[in-house]
């Protein structure tokens, strides 16, 4: 149980944050919040040793037992790694935010509530073994990230970026939910572990491909894959701590996690291999190519994040090839290991770079790289951290990015060696595209660090006089930069402790335990094709970086009208105009029109369902005969209804209404329901009496008769509603799909409820809450009437006094 509760600790603490912010405003609220991720990181650290040996920890908290929905925390190598990233990077981000966000100028209670809510949501995503709870936490990440991105809601760009991210990621989440439902229909279970076990039996089912595509739509939108990446650059309007947390280490990695977790289920599909690998490599190229175009520091990092996520995604797709490789497994086994290893490396170097971008913005007042330069001597510590992060991102030694980039090139070269799925021909494109994309990665890495800290110092273009950031703001990026260097020298410790357990979770069809993952990481493998590709990347990258001013202008030649952002804007504008036009047509302000729409819709749905479900098996067997006196009562009922509607005076209408009520009471008597008849008689008597008492105050009917034109559409809808109700009643009477509950009432009315009158027991016990709410509604209505009467009396008294 405690394992499940760990997920909700940030959410529970978030409830206390506004109180702490209000009561202890002399202390930065971040200091209180910092204890949450630190404590959770320490707790999850205690699981490392056992999980590294292949152990798995589960805990379950029932949520909606009637629907078989539970919150199941499942900690294996993959989920534990992500949990440590969420809490570990979260601790550094909160520490960074304490010095980045001014406690006197910012609404810190809002910021930390949203951040803690997001932390709980991410922990829920990576630990959920239940498909429905995974979806719940998945959408909670979208909502909380929307709030974080739009934290500075007084800025138009912040609101636009927040809305854009939510529209795309929530839309993808709905697609993913469809995939989950199809998986449940195929496997009959919501458990991911159980679905993995039965994966060989799922691949041949007709819903399998649909489920695969829908699930990938959710993953691609969340992890900013092409063409859904367009929300990520606009999300850079968020405060830098948000960008460092959501867009380097957590939220954008949720899509990566989803693909990794479901690889054992879908790896057997050729479509999965091509979609994940192909979209990943395309995203890698697209993001790296357009990162060089950006002039905003966080914009460069946003597109670099897109490219790095594409790299990890392509490796996960390549890892699925191992399911089909058979004897050639040694050539592709590096893919899953490289994906997880680079995921860790990316979190370290990209987190530090986002923080440095925030520091530069904080100390100079701008993120425009065209105004920056010459800051190396002014901000030497920031430059050192930026250089370490950028060189690691470029894939140079002695930094951790070099190791995982070499493994990436190995995996891409291996793809063209497989003689299935067309890799023996089209597979040659993967190492080529990977090499070109790596060149642009090299360029934007150098572009970020050297255009900011090298070159000419331009104090006249800077809003503030720059200086080195306070030590409190530098602690977090320094620690991340230290990890970048440290991991390069102890890669196998990281591999054995964190990467191998995660790989075993991704590829259970290859490895029985983490120890079976026989991969050893080293910086030198001799003269290999990968090394030659790296040397080529460095040579071409340096040449293109030096010549950057001569060819960077080519980006301006791309027509804006053909961009994906422009397509998104046009779609949103079209929807806004079109839907407004539609709503103006039916939102007329007329209650008659609204009732017409509602009754039409209900009739079409119900009668259509009866047709589709073949529910017209109407039978009059066992029906009571219709006697003469019943026919007379029906006629009286119809006459009373007509009088009530067509009466020219209020008194006649009241009499007609009373006739309807008393006739219904007589029907209850005939049907042997004396209790209902008595209740109906009492209510009808009171209603008529009240009408008569208030008769003096009722508005009078006009002297002239108001003639209403006959309208065919209303007549059709009225007749259709009547036909619908009749068909439903006859169909329900004729088809008993489930036993009547009446028998249960008869058997338990005395033994369970202790009553002899079944009607009273149903109202008071079995439907106690229903009756209570009805009484409450009547009580509220009575109080409202009393208030209006008193208001009217007070107005009359005030009018009399004024006279």
UniProtKB/TrEMBL annotation:
Keywords: Antiport, Cell membrane, Hydrogen ion transport, Ion transport, Membrane, Sodium, Sodium transport, Transmembrane, Transmembrane helix, Transport. It is found in: Cell membrane; Membrane. It is a multi-pass membrane protein. InterPro entries: CPA3_Na-H_Antiporter_A (IPR050616), MrpA/MnhA1/PhaAB (IPR005663), MrpA_C/MbhD (IPR025383), MrpA_C/MbhE (IPR046806), ND/Mrp_TM (IPR001750), Proton_antipo_N (IPR001516). Residues 715-790 form the MrpA C-terminal/MbhE domain. The chain crosses the membrane at residues 6-24, 31-51, 71-99, 111-128, 134-153, 165-187, 207-232, 244-266, 272-292, 299-322, 334-360, 372-396, 428-450, 471-494, 531-548, 594-612, 628-647, 654-671, 677-698, 710-730, 771-789. Residues 64-112 form the NADH-Ubiquinone oxidoreductase (complex I) chain 5 N-terminal domain. The keyword Transmembrane applies. Residues 128-423 form the NADH:quinone oxidoreductase/Mrp antiporter transmembrane domain. The keyword Transmembrane applies. Residues 636-700 form the MrpA C-terminal/MbhD domain. PANTHER family: NA(+)/H(+) ANTIPORTER SUBUNIT (PTHR43373), NA(+)_H(+) ANTIPORTER SUBUNIT A (PTHR43373:SF1). Belongs to the CPA3 antiporters (TC 2.A.63) subunit A family. NCBIfam families: 2a6301s01, PRK12645.1. This is Na+/H+ antiporter subunit A.
């Amino acid at each position: 149980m405690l394992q499940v509760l760990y997920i909700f600790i940030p959410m529970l603490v978030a409830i206390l944050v506004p109180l702490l912010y209000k009561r202890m405003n002399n202390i930065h609220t971040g200091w209180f919040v910092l204890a949450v991720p630190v404590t959770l990181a320490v707790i999850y650290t205690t699981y490392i040793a056992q999980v590294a040996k292949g152990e798995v920890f589960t805990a379950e908290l029932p949520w909606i037992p009637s629907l078989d929905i539970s919150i199941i925390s499942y900690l294996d190598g993959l989920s534990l790694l992500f949990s440590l990233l969420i809490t570990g990077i979260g601790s550094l981000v909160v520490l960074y935010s304490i010095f980045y966000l001014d406690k006197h100028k910012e609404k810190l209670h809002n910021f930390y509530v949203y951040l803690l809510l997001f932390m709980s949501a991410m922990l829920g995503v990576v630990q959920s073994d239940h498909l429905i709870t995974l979806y719940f936490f998945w959408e909670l990440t979208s909502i909380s990230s929307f709030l974080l991105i739009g934290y500075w809601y007084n800025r138009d760009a912040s609101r636009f970026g927040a809305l854009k991210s939510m529209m795309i990621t929530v839309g993808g989440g709905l697609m993913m939910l469809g995939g989950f439902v199809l998986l449940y229909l195929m496997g009959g279970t919501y458990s991911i572990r159980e679905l993995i076990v039965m994966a060989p039996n799922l691949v041949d089912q007709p819903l399998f491909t649909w489920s695969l595509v829908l699930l990938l739509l959710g993953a691609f939108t969340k992890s900013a894959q092409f063409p859904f990446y367009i929300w990520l650059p606009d999300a850079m309007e968020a405060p830098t701590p948000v960008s460092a947390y959501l867009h380097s280490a957590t939220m954008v990695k949720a899509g990566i996690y989803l693909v990794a977790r479901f690889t054992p289920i879908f790896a057997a599909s050729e479509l999965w291999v091509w979609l994940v690998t192909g979209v990943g490599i395309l995203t890698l190229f697209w993001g790296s190519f357009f990162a060089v175009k950006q002039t905003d520091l966080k914009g460069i990092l946003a597109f670099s994040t897109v490219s790095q996520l594409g790299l990890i995604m392509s490796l996960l797709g390549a890892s699925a090839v191992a399911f089909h490789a058979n004897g050639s497994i040694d050539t592709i086994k590096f893919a899953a290991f490289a994906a997880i290893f680079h995921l860790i490396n990316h979190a370290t170097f990209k987190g530090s770079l986002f923080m440095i971008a925030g520091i530069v913005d904080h100390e100079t007042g701008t993120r425009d790289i065209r105004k920056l330069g010459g800051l190396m001597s002014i901000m030497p510590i920031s430059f050192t951290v930026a250089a370490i992060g950028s060189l690691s991102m470029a894939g140079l030694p002695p930094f951790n990015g070099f190791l995982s980039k070499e493994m990436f090139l190995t995996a891409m070269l291996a793809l063209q060696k497989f003689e299935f799925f067309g890799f023996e021909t089209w597979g040659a494109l993967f190492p080529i595209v990977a090499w070109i994309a790596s060149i642009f990665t090299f360029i934007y890495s150098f572009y970020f660090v050297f255009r900011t800290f090298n070159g000419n110092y331009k104090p006249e273009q800077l809003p503030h006089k720059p200086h080195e950031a306070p030590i409190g703001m530098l602690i977090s990026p320094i620690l991340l930069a230290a990890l970048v260097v440290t991991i390069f020298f102890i890669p196998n410790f990281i591999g054995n402790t964190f990467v191998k357990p995660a790989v075993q979770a991704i590829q259970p069809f290859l490895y029985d335990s983490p120890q079976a993952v026989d991969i050893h990481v080293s910086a030198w493998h001799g003269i290999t094709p990968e090394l030659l590709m790296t040397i080529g990347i460095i040579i071409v990258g340096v040449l293109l970086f030096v010549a950057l001013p001569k060819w960077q202008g080519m980006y301006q030649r791309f027509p804006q009208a053909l961009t994906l952002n422009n397509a998104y804007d046009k779609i949103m504008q079209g929807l806004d105009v079109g839907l407004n036009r539609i709503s103006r047509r039916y939102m007329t302000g007329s209650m008659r029109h609204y009732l017409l729409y509602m009754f039409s819709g209900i009739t079409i749905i119900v009668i259509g369902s009866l047709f589709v479900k073949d529910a017209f098996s109407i039978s009059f067997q066992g029906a009571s005969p219709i006697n003469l006196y019943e026919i007379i009562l029906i006629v009286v009922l119809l006459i009373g209804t007509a009088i009530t509607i067509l009466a020219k005076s209020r008194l006649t209408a009241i009499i007609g209404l009373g006739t309807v009520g008393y006739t219904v009471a007589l029907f209850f008597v005939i049907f042997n329901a004396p209790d209902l008849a008595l209740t109906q008689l009492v209510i009808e008597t009171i209603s008529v009496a009240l009408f008569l008492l208030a008769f003096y105050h009722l508005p009078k009917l006009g002297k002239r008769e108001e003639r209403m034109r006959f309208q065919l559409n209303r007549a059709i809808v009225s007749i259709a509603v009547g036909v619908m109700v009749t068909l439903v009643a006859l169909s329900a009477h004729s088809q008993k799909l489930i036993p009547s509950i009446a028998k249960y009432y008869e058997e338990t009315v005395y033994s369970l409820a202790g009553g002899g009158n079944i009607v009273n027991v149903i109202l008071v016990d079995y439907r106690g809450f229903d009756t209570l709410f009805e009484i409450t509604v009547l009580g509220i209505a009575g109080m409202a009437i009393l208030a209006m009467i008193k208001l009217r009396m007070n107005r009359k008294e005030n009018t009399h006094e004024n006279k």
